Input
Amino acid sequence: MNLARIDLLPFAIFMACSVIFAIVQVAAADKPNVVVIVGDDMGYADIGVHGCKDIPTPNIDALAAGGVRCTNGYVSGPYCSPTRAGLLTGRYQTRFGHEFNPGPAPGKVQRKQQRQLGYDEKAGIGLPLSETTIADRLKSADYATALVGKWHLGHADPYHPLRRGFDEYFGFLGGAHSYFPGNDARIFRGEEPVEENEYLTDAFGREAVAFLERQTANRPFFLCLSFNAVHTPMHADEARLEKFKSIRDEKRRTYAAMMSAMDDAIGAVLAKLQEKKLDDNTMVFFISDNGGPSLSTTTVNGSINRPLRGSKRTTLEGGIRVPFLVKWPARLPTGKVYDQPVIQLDILPTVLAAAGIEADPDTRLDGVNMLPYLRGESEGPPHDALYWRFGQQMAIRQGDWKLVKYDPAVDGLKGKATQAKLYNLASDIGESKNLIAEEPERAKTLQATWDRWNASNMAAAWGDGGKGKKAKARKQQRQAAARRAAEKIPDGN
Ligand SMILES: [Ca+2]
Output
């Protein structure tokens, strides 16, 4: 027997393990950290780098200066919950019935779709459990994951952020929330209701910073900082209101103060990344979940979408084109402006590519990895076309052309949706000159392309996209209102 060989065996095993451990450590250190910051109901015009004059946003502007600003950045819908569903899955939410905001009371007409998606009727509705979130995927790759802020993807237990891939959660489950303490509305840490005494946007900033404080370079992390600012209710603190006393319109003044609070919180997050020397290898995304609401039946907040036309709730540019910034000093250019259309669905595949994570082949992702495009390595547009469906409204953008049926309330009319209209966004960003009579063939082709895409969608699993009668919808609203009152959970849209 070779004694020397036996003696050396444990040492060799130890050395081999050390090498493997070192490789794993290096790989973990190489994986970028990810921070996704979501604003709520922001106007396209309301950041400094988009020309805003009355509301300084130095920290959002710094984010743009340190990375890439996507001027044609979109979200996949004009409402809160659907676009958050798209963000977390990298898939058009219409593929899985999440076309509208989920309410607590699902309607019978959509039960078929709900059964198809595996809903437990007693458990309520939310982001279908058939879907895998970006947090699930990153957690599986050993990321530390946290959500701070608004959820709006289901109140019920199975849909709780802690069961959708997030290790940590601080925030509220509904679509809107008071910014001031004392109204008994629930803020949760994990699953425990907590008493929060700070102005809510400041509290979300504080919690995001505290999460970053606990992170090290040894393990990558994913933080989703999901503000309800600048969604209604219009609540601002006195100090920030004082800062904007020169703005005469009261709603705009309050909006400015709320924007300023969000910008301050973003500044604190960026400063903490820098202080911990984590900023170089941290990807930071910033989007709004939909455009600014200006239509009278939306959550009007004083936002401005100029030069875009339309509002939250419409498939015109004002509802779906949003501030869209990406910063990753280690791998992306700084101060770059990128003009090809991208969409929030791209964030998930971009993050997975950056982290070297393969998406399971069974999942059909709609987003694409933006990195080669933003780095200038791939020419041409990342998408052949982008698509929207929101009830009777629709839109497709292919190149500079857009075919759209939008909410007629924009034109002061009633009804489900306008006739299809054709716009060239390169020459008419404000969608004012309908070219459908001049370009009928182009319109027909765009409609056919949208129809092919739509064939792979399913009917809405809830909301006003079904064939429910008005009385039933009113009953559902009454039930939802009663439940919110009982639980003191404000809801929004
Ligand atoms: Ca929103």
About this structure: Residues 40-41, 80, 231, 289-290 surround calcium ion (CB under 6 Å). DSSP finds 13 helices and 16 strands in the chain. The two ends are 76 Å apart (CA to CA). The chain has one domain: 32-384+465-487.
